[in-house]
Amino acid sequence: MDSLIPFTTSGSLVDSVDKKMLVVLRDGRKLIGVLRSYDQYANLVLEDTVERIYHGSAYGDIQRGIFIIRGENVVLLGEVDLDKEDNIPLTPVPLEHVIPPHRQEQEQRKMREIIKSKVLLDEKGFSKEGGEGDGY
Question: Does the keyword Ribonucleoprotein apply (predicted)?
Answer without folding.
Answer: yes
